[in-house]
């Protein structure tokens, strides 16, 4: 079966990024320092909207980690990863706004949600944002406003 | 301080969810034996006794992995075929099939009846064992 050629990456890169994201989000929860969460939001935004090649964590992986690992033929499609980064971006923005405007509870909840997703991805390779896609799409039948179809 | 507790709690809960999801992943379920809709019937291989209909979306990283396993399994097993349906722009079909996540794989016989389904990336051996009674070869 021939399939359209889609951009792909070494799957260990996103796993590495997920661990870094997990560490950053834990630090945000520990310190409550919103500029750190804002920086993470920028990282998410670069990965989601500019492309994974522009993600700072991806660059760290390519420069410092990948040369130390054996090369692999295994590849992963970029589209699900970018979608998940966009979901992370949404949570990070809400969290940053929460912390920065004094709604600390909102900041904590949004950061914890992003942390749960990042940790599931890092430790289990389970992409929550990707799984949510189909559910969101099903919701969009009854409520067109929630639609994620582009 | 509250933040620290939330961080620990979140990691614990996410860890638990991860373990449960991993355990459920790839398990063969035989509860639903309804006849599949025409959209699914259309992709069935007429020469095969059983077609593995993989349901995918664009935003699905493990679908690729599942595709490799299922295509190889169908290739090496007589009477078994593999087909792929992209649900990305067909949420109404996902709803009719009661599919909540991708990949989900339906094993459908030549009459269009669903034999079993697997959520997540299928495990080769358990899937093949469950299909054996439906394959003559």
TrEMBL record, chain B:
Keywords on record: Membrane, Transmembrane, Transmembrane helix
Pfam families the UniProt entry points to: Thioredoxin
Alphabetized InterPro entries for the sequence: Thioredoxin-like_sf, Thioredoxin_domain
Top-rank taxon: Bacteria
Gene3D superfamilies according to UniProt: Glutaredoxin
Annotated transmembrane regions: 6-22
Domain Thioredoxin: 47-131
Name of the protein this chain belongs to: Thioredoxin family protein
